[in-house]
Structure of Fluoride-specific ion channel FluC:
Amino acid sequence: MPGATVPALSPDAPVADPPRPARWHGQAPVVAVVAAGGGIGAAARYGASLLWPTAAAGFPWTTFWVNVAGCCVIGLFMVVITEGRPVHRLVRPFFGTGVLGGFTTFSTYAVDIQRLMEEGRPGTALAYLAATLLAALAAVWLAAATARRLLPTLPLREKGKRSS
């Protein structure tokens, strides 16, 4: 605009922070290992469903045991990596989020409950819902407690030290 003046900046005026580089570059390895681990875990779950298929009107035992076993491993794994040996920073996202996240399945659990309800088996659906929840929580707790009892036999992580 002609005749417009630019206001003078005071030396005390706050200066805007310079633009930050995108965090994506630092997160790319994490995203990559989660994706790779997720593929491995999902393939293992799919393999379990091929080995032990659920009958059309049957109880979803394969999904039940996959989720319970996965929760057991999560309980053990989290104690070992947080209280035991130092591990590389990508181990947790690869194995915990990727492999075990792909192996365990909340979506199939929900679909199984819906299928049982649609088949007119609400008692079985509710039993499956409750049994999975209780067994999965018990598996995490028991595995974590067992790992803590066995952990003194492992070289421990120094307090306050993070692994790279």
Observations:
- The chain has five helices and no strands.
- The longest helix spans residues 122-150.
- The chain has one domain: 30-152.
- Confidence is low (pLDDT under 50) at residues 160-164.
